[in-house]
């Protein structure tokens, strides 16, 4: 049943739940003000007991109108962001390994040159290369998690 159709059906049934007792009470000769109060109470009770299904349909359609389901466009955007996060995670995993390779090469170069140099003699270039190799081993890649930079957060 369409949302608007369910609202119309429920409204008509609620009006009948009020109008029928009101007409009956007025035909019995009860004062109109008291007949209206009694008909309202009876209509409320009747709608609670007998109109549960139409009431739930209306409530469901109102909920769907206020909380729309994701469309295809939002799903595509979510997939794109998930792929981007996966690529960033992959880059973070590869970055420490890539940073360690030059450091290993530099430390190998220093040890090779120190074997060639006479004992006790270390050149200034060798000392700088050794310091660079140690600094590269301690380096931490400076990356920002994608969740912190996502728009709207």
Question: Which features does this protein show?
Answer:
6 helices; 0% strand
Give a written overview of the molecule.
By secondary structure, this protein is mainly alpha-helical. The chain has helices at 3-27, 32-50, 52-66, 72-116, 124-138, 146-149. Helix 1 packs across helix 2, helix 1 runs antiparallel to helix 3 (52-66) and helix 4 (72-116) packs antiparallel against helix 5 (124-138).
Query: Rg from C-alpha positions?
Result: 39 Å
| SSE run | HHHHHH
Measured as a percent range, the helix fraction is over 70%
- Strand proportion: under 5%
Brief write-up:
The protein is mostly helical and 153 residues long. Helix content is 80%, strand content 0%.
Walk me through the topology.
Blueprint: H1 3-27, H2 32-50, H3 52-66, H4 72-116, H5 124-138, H6 146-149
């Amino acid at each position: 049943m369409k949302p608007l159709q369910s609202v119309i059906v429920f409204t008509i049934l609620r009006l009948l739940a009020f109008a029928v007792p009101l007409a009956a009470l007025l035909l019995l000769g009860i004062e109109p003000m008291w007949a209206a109060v009694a008909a309202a109470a009876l209509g409320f009770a009747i709608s609670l007991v007998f109109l549960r299904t139409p009431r739930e349909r209306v409530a469901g359609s109102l909920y769907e109108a206020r909380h729309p389901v994701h469309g295809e466009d939002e799903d595509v955007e979510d997939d794109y962001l998930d792929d981007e996060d996966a690529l960033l995670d992959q880059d973070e995993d590869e970055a420490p390994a890539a940073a360690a390779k030059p450091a290993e090469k530099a430390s190998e170069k220093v040890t090779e040159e120190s074997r060639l140099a006479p004992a006790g003699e270390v050149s200034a270039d060798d000392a700088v290369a050794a310091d660079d190799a140690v600094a590269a081993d301690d380096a931490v890649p400076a990356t920002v998690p994608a969740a912190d930079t996502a728009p709207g957060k």
